[in-house]
Amino acid sequence: MTTYSLTCLNNSQLHGSFAVFQKAPPMTVPGNVFSLAWFARPAAPGSRVTFTWNLDYSFVWSETGLLQPGINFSATQVIGADPNGQNLVQLTQDSWGATTFANPSVTGALGSLTIQQLSNVVPNRTSVGIGMAGSGTFAVQAAPNMTAVFTPHPNYWVLFGNLETGDVIDVEDVTGSVEVTYGGALTSRTATLGLDNLISVA
Question: I need a surface site. Which of 2, 41, 92, 100 has the fewest CB within 10 A?
Fold first, then answer.
C-alpha cells in the first residue's frame, strides 16, 4: 500500500497548527456533510511537522450532540472499511442502550461506504462518518432510519490556523487553504507557510 507524506514548514512569524482536511465526496444522504480536521499539529515559527498516511478506510461515529462547525468530532468507535470489501455497517443501540456499530458486511454499493442508521438511533446525539488512516475525514448527523452512502475520492487540503484533529470545518468559511495533489510516483510534498502568511506547495 502506498504511503503518502506532507511536510509542513512554518517560515512565518505565526503561532498555530497545520491542519490537513479533505473536501466532501458526493454522497446520497440528506443533511450536511462536514469535513473534519483530519490531521492537525502545532508548529512554532521556524519548525516543521510531517504527516504520513495511506488509503486505509474506516467507519467512525462520535457522540457529538448537534454536529456543527466549531465542535470536535472525537471518534468513539473506529472499525475498518473497504469500498470494495467490507463496505456496509449498521449504527444501532445494543441491549444495554449503548450506541455501537454492528453487522459489518460486504453488501453495500461497490466502491462506496454505507452506514445504515437503525430505528433506535437517538436524533441529534451521534454523528457518523468515514475516516482514513485511523482518523475521521467526514461526518454527518446520525438520525433514525437514515442511510449515509459515501463514495471516497481522496483529496487533500492544508491550512494553518487554530485547529485540532477532529474539529468540524465549514469548508465554505475556510480561508488560506491550498490543495495538495499527488499522482504517479509523486507521494511526498512540502507545504511552506511563508513570511507573507500564505502557503505554497512544492
Answer: 2
